[in-house]
Amino acid sequence: MAISVDPIDTTLWIHIFIQMAAWGVIFPVGMVLGIVKNRWHVPVQVLGTALAILGYALGHMHGGREFRHDNVHSKFASPISFMLFAQVLIGIYLKLHIERGVFGKIRRVVKLAHGIIGKALPVFAWTQMIFGGITALGFCQGDHLWLKRTGRSQEFFDSAVITAWGVVNTFTEHRWGSEWVENDWQHTTMGVIWWCAGLVGIWLSRDRDGRPKRNVIPGFIILITGWAFGGHPQHVHVSAEVHKVYGYTLMAAGATRIIEVSFVLRDRPTPEDARETNSFQYIPVFLLFASGFMFMGATEEQMALVADSGMDHIAYILILFSLASLLFLFTLMLIHLYDVNANRDSLHKSADTGRLGPRLDGHVPIRDANEFELEGLMSDDEEVNPAKLAQDDDESLNSTLGKNSDGHAR
């Protein structure tokens, strides 16, 4: 037995929520604060470490449900705890600012290691939380073991990962030498299309002069994968419905990705100094978040658990979308936290010297408003005289103010 029949007791629930707060929220926030050299970096990480130690202790003090001693969550706790311990020691060393002798010479290397470990911890923490859920429910045992598997455009890396995974999928989804059963054909041919199309994506990621070039192949692969998953035959009704919605979501992610590259960005890379993100660009990202949650929540054991709970597929899918929304929100908050701290000077500069122009009552950018009105009336061959535009702005402002004054006088 992977788990005992006992329920999860209060102590273990406290362990779960404390560790989720420490590793899933506090440490990532502290990581971003460290990147931007914010003074709250150390206090936040100290708080996270204290909670992590408390949560670790509670994890060994609980009663109720018992687990196999060699479960993956327990095994992974040692390396991630060692990473945290090393990070704390390195942080103390850097805080002491010892710059004499050999300690001063290795400070740069230690600082680099501190940054690498700090950025890796949230990834390892997310993995450990997934392992915790697997262990708590007794999943991935017996027949349900997991298979352990710049100067370039974004699509190069996407296509490279897709190609590599396609090769793995081609030779691992069917036990070679045995009969082809159930979904073997679909899983194996899905791997084939991944590495075949992935190679095309790699080839198209550079133009004839070797410069980075965008392409829609990864979006196409995501779309075709969603179509394939949506048609997987399932033995349980709730599983069939979840796979269907998962397929639709993945297809939508692929389609919107193609639209983004082809029509929103028009094959151009996203500028590094872009202050605004097109609202459409959030759609494929969120859909990938949601499809990822549905993929992780559509295992055979999880589907059996949902079917036995009495919950219908609609409620379950809405829960998965809710979790995806929360993680998406948290990710956006981390990015925002980094952006406002790392680009503070550029934000002030753009506000002071940008093309905001004079404002009416502190709200309407007059120049922008006039340019917007003129834009639809001008042909491509016509040009706007900046001096004339500025003069028109002043005259328009004076004229408007005069009319308002006259109106009040009457």
* Cα distance spanning the termini: 89 Å
Strand order of the largest sheet: 1-2
Rg, Å, rounded: 28 Å
> How would you spell out the order of helices and strands?
HHHHHHHHHHHHHEEHH
User: What is the overall shape?
Assistant: globular
Show unreliable segments.
353-364, 371-377, 379-384, 393-410
Please summarize the sheet with the most strands. 2 strands, antiparallel
Number of helices: 15
The count of strands amounts to 2
Supply the key terms.
single chain; 410 residues; mainly alpha; two-stranded antiparallel ribbon; 15 helices; 2 strands; membrane; DUF2427; transmembrane helix; transmembrane
Secondary structure topology:
Elements: H1 10-35, H2 41-59, H3 72-96, H4 101-105, H5 107-137, H6 154-172, H7 184-204, H8 217-230, H9 237-264, H10 282-296, H11 300-309, H12 313-342, H13 344-353, E1 359-360, E2 364-365, H14 366-375, H15 386-409
Antiparallel strand pairs: 1-2
Helix pairs in contact: 1-2, 1-5, 1-12, 3-5, 6-7, 7-8, 8-9, 9-10, 9-12, 10-12
Short description:
This protein is mostly helical.
